[in-house]
Design brief:
The longest helix has 23 residues. 29% of the residues lie in helices and 34% in strands. The protein has 261 residues and is of the alpha+beta class. It is globular. The strands form three sheets. Strands 8, 9, 10, 11, 12, 13 and 14 form a seven-stranded antiparallel sheet that branches. Strands 1-2-3-7-6 form a five-stranded antiparallel sheet. The chain has a two-stranded antiparallel ribbon with strand order 4-5. The protein has two domains: 101 residues, Phosphorylase Kinase, domain 1; 120 residues, D-amino Acid Aminotransferase, Chain A, domain 1, CATH 3.30.470.20. Strand 12 and strand 13 form a beta hairpin. The protein has seven helices and 14 strands. Bound molecules: uridine-5'-diphosphate. The site of uridine-5'-diphosphate (UDP) has 13 residues, from strand 9, helix 2, strand 12 and strand 14.
């Protein structure tokens, strides 16, 4: 597979064309942004860890029949993905209230929700990804009713699976963000899971201590982001227990090409 020109550069990832018009390469950068791009930095090794963690979660979701864009990981920072038309909505899934919802609605931080709560945000950086309702989605035709109904069912399955997966390794899945894309499979229009699932897009707390193992370490200046992401990768069995992944190690690793599957 040949890597072609850059098609798109986002805050944490770059998309490159390939010689197959249906496939693109997703490159994970080390850039971290928060609060609608007002806070920015580079954290060496973050992209490498997110690439591995997202590959692990998406391939596990494939195994339970949840179609997604991942084809295969190419190397430490890149994966081949199916080209989809991204639905311009961020689907936020909450199991425990924290972050923006606590401020917006005056809910106590850490409130356990009786059922998972799905919120919709319009993917628009200029507008600060505003919260929208299902009625807005239908009124402005950002997605159809059929698509939204399918996505809601998928979200609940993904949430159930991920809660169990993380619980098994002593981590609470507090909330996360998903994106979906349109694609034609065998001539049929389908909606599949896209983007990434990683500690950049999930809130993950240690089950016993409530230690934050996600991007809140950057948002809230808690430090030690790489050790926290490494801990998540180790607990999921992606990295070996004994491997001590410091930022420097991860950077070294990132230059090592992994054998194609
Ligand atoms: N999230 C994300 N990208 C965004 C907004 C939110 O990945 O652009 C994730 C975030 O990491 C968290 C969840 O979605 O796991 C809910 O975030 P929230 O709305 O509470 O955002 P914040 O408190 O960061 O404003």
């Amino acid at each position: 597979m040949k890597k072609g020109k850059k098609l798109y550069e986002g805050k944490a990832k770059i998309i490159y064309a390939t010689n197959d018009k249906n496939l693109v390469i997703q490159y994970f950068k080390d850039d971290a942004t928060a609060f609608n791009n007002q806070k920015k930095t580079t954290i060496e090794g973050k992209g490498v860890l997110n690439n591995r963690i997202s590959e692990y979660i998406l391939s596990n979701l494939s195994q339970i029949g949840i179609k997604n864009h991942l084809v295969k990981r190419l190397n430490m920072r890149e994966q081949v993905i199916k080209l989809v038309e991204i639905i311009p909505i961020e689907f936020i899934v909450r199991n425990i209230a924290t972050g923006s919802i606590t401020k917006r609605l005056g809910i106590e931080d850490g409130t356990v929700l009786r059922e998972p709560l799905i919120e919709y945000c319009l993917k628009n950086d200029k507008l600060g990804d505003p919260l929208i309702s299902e009625e807005h989605i239908l009124a402005f035709e950002w997605a159809s009713k059929t698509e939204i109904d399918k996505i809601k069912k998928l979200i609940l399955r993904i949430n159930d699976f991920m809660i169990g997966m993380f619980r098994g390794v002593g981590i609470k899945l507090i909330d996360f963000k998903l994106e979906f894309g349109r694609i034609k499979i065998d001539g049929k229009n389908e909606v599949i899971l896209a983007d990434e699932i990683s500690p950049d897009t999930c809130r993950l707390w240690d089950s016993v201590t409530d230690k934050k193992l996600d991007k809140d370490r950057f948002r809230q200046d808690l430090g030690d982001l790489i050790p926290a992401y490494t801990e998540v990768a180790k607990r999921l069995g992606i990295l070996h227990e004994q491997s001590n992944v410091s930022a420097v190690n991860v950077t070294k690793l990132s230059s090592v090409k992994i054998k194609k599957k």
